[in-house]
């Protein structure tokens, strides 16, 4: 059964490049960007993990951290990390799960047999501090992911958790947002002191409330 938005992210124990972890305990009160890569010593994955390593401070600023899984061994991961750090100029300091028996990949529906039964697709789960799955993205093995989009997605979810707003197409942190339709104009007058623009009765924009 597929994991759906709002589901509790399944807990598991696994060996990683930073020792054995119990997922929920490791996650703690942070947001987690949990993603799979098809295989070690592959070109696209090398660029992805190198870029993720460079995002450590950006993730930390959002109370988030990365966790990676593939069906290769800890030994292979550790050897590959040396290549990543050499070619991408970044220190890989997040754990990479060894999932040689494909238990975690299966638990999280990361193996799609019609794409490739031997490896994980490029799946991403964004999991909040309550261990709820808040977003999921699936890419084919051939396409590298846009991790700037994942940061943007976290920004949007953290903002909309705190205010009765939604973020419009191509929104970036600091830009105007949309007041959700369930908020009346009377309430909007109180909730959004910076004012708002009514484009249509159901489309009202306001400056980002936490900026």
Folded structure, characterized:
This protein is of the alpha+beta class and 211 residues long. It has seven helices and eleven strands. It has a five-stranded mixed sheet. A four-stranded antiparallel sheet has the order 8-9-11-10, covered by helices on one side. α2 packs across α4. The protein is elongated. It starts with 12 loop residues before the first strand and ends in a 5-residue tail after the last strand.
Please name the defining characteristics of this protein:
elongated, single chain, 211 residues, alpha+beta
Summarize the structure.
The chain contains 7 helices and 11 strands.
Name the assembly state: single chain
In angstroms, what separates the terminal alpha carbons? 40 Å
> Level of helix content?
25-40%
Over all CA atoms, what is the radius of gyration? 19 Å
- Mean pLDDT across residues: 95
**What is the general shape?**
elongated
Specify the number of helices: 7
Task: Tell me the layout of helices and strands.
Blueprint: E1 13-16, E2 19-22, H1 23-27, E3 31-36, H2 43-54, H3 56-61, E4 64-70, H4 74-88, E5 96-98, H5 103-107, E6 122-127, E7 133-139, H6 147-162, E8 165-166, E9 177-179, H7 185-191, E10 197-200, E11 203-206
Parallel strand pairs: 3-4, 4-5
Antiparallel strand pairs: 1-2, 3-6, 6-7, 8-9, 9-11, 10-11
Helix pairs in contact: 2-4
């Amino acid at each position: 059964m597929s994991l759906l938005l709002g589901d509790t992210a399944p807990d598991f124990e696994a060996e990683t490049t930073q020792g054995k972890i119990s997922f929920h305990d490791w996650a703690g009160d942070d947001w987690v960007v949990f993603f799979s890569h098809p295989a070690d010593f592959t070109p696209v994955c090398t660029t992805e993990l190198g870029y993720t390593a460079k995002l450590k401070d950006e993730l930390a600023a959002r109370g988030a951290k990365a966790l990676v899984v593939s069906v290769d061994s800890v030994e292979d991961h550790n050897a590959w990390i040396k290549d990543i750090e050499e070619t991408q100029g970044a220190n890989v300091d997040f754990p990479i799960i060894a999932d040689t028996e494909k238990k975690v990949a299966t638990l999280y529906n990361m193996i799609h047999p019609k794409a490739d039964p031997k490896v994980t697709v490029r799946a991403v789960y964004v999991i909040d501090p309550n261990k709820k799955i808040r977003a999921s993205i699936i890419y084919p093995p051939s396409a590298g992911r846009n991790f700037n989009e994942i940061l943007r997605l976290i920004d949007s979810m953290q903002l909309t958790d705190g205010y009765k707003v939604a973020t419009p197409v191509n929104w970036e942190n600091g830009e105007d947002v949309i007041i959700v339709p369930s908020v009346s104009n009377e309430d909007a007058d109180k909730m959004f002191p910076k004012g708002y623009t009514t484009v249509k009765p159901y489309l009202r924009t306001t400056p980002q409330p936490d900026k």
